[in-house]
Model the fold of this input.
Amino acid sequence: MGFKRKHSRVDVGRPGRLQRGALSAPCKVLDVSESGVRLESRLFVKKGEVLQLLIELDRGKTLACELEVIHVHAPKLGAKIMAIGAEDRERLAHILDDHVQSSFSRR
Done:
């Protein structure tokens, strides 16, 4: 069995919102990496579907991206980030950097 993941995951436990067309549902973002997310939602999704995700961050900021569902084990799902704007990519990089900094400072 090969190791597929290219980027390490960071636990975030943040509220978010998934959207598919006019359908929208709350979700909990369990973890993120540079290339994907793992989340929990009651929204019925199938592998291969494209969704919009909005993650609520600190100080009223948000992070938005477009996802493709890679696997579903209801209510959890894993998805690959397909599209993300420059500002949102920067916010994601800060989340990942902050996690690296805090994990090194705990040692």
